[in-house]
Amino acid sequence: MQLITHFRTIVISDVHLGTKGSKAREVTQFLKQYKAEKLILNGDIIDGWQLKKYGSWKKKHTAFFRQVLKMMDEYDTKVIYLRGNHDDFLDQILPFRIGKLFSIRRDYILKGKTGKRFYVTHGDVFDSVTTNLKWLAYLGDVGYTFLLWLNKLYNQWRSWRGLPYYSLSQTIKQKVKAAVSYISDFEEKLAELALANQCDGVICGHIHQPAIRQIGGVMYLNSGDWVESLSALVEDHDGTWSLVYFQSPNEKAADSDDAPDELSPEESLHDEQEDDYLQSLLQLSTVAK
Asked: Largest CB tally within 10 Å, which of 53, 92, 127, 215?
């Protein structure tokens, strides 16, 4: 029997459901290992950009939301979904609430166990590429998707040679972004935003770089992503924050989009109303301009 760890807060971002690069099975398995009073889905959970073009929705993507709903049902987990730049189609319905446990917002202020206040935002608000030059952001998205594909082929070759995994796409992305100052002042500006909102810290995602550090007296926390880092932020019941990385008990690959999704009887018999909510979100993601 698997032991389930109980956290006060779990923060997950940048899952990019609807894309081939999304580690949907891994993040779903990750959530099955934990209980939480509060689950914050901090943007880019659904990738509306790619769903409108060449992305596709798989059963494993639906399984992620089924697990979130299961946490709400079994543990009374409060779920806060914050929009990101890839799921900006949610702007059409903000703010949105279903009952007492589920809401969709632009940002959120979280009060930690120790009394500290954290400003929670996806982080794209200070990204001049995504806010002012969206056409360039879409072009960058295509390039990043290509890097993920190239990374997969490269690591298949490394595996055949008996070499360990190497994130080629992460390395290239860091060098390119450094060259164009893509995230040069990202952390500093978010720290300033936290202070402007009378908060002690800021919790974000967006740049796919998990981190916990102090910036000018402000606690900066980034939850990473579920494309490469496979990381989440967690707050325990003493108010201590840490980064947790997914570790599969079975390392055999489960990346094939054609692999069958095995759902438990409970998951298969979920209420049709819950599926209707998800279908409504997916419809928004494909028609949003």
From this structure: 127
CA pair distance 159, 154, nearest whole angstrom:
9
Contact 261, 58 (CB under 8 A): yes
Phi, psi of 211 (to 5 degrees): -165, 150
**Helix-, strand-, coil-residue percentages of the chain, each rounded to 5:** 40, 20, 40
First to last CA, the chain: 47
> How far is it, in rounded angstroms, from Cα 270 to Cα 267?
5
Instruction: Specify the CATH class of 5-127+183-287 in words.
Output: alpha beta
What is the DSSP code (8-state) at residue 257?
T
What are the pLDDT digits (tens) for 19-75?
Answer: 888 999 999 999 999 999 999 999 999 998 888 877 789 999 999 999 999 999 999
Give residue limits of the domains in the chain. 5-127+183-287
In one letter, which amino acid is 27? V
State the DSSP string of 126-151. G-HHHHH-HHHHHHHHHHHHHHHHHH
Q: How many DSSP H helices and E strands does the chain contain?
A: 9, 12
Give the position of tokens 């707050």: 235
Determine the residue type at 120.
Answer: V
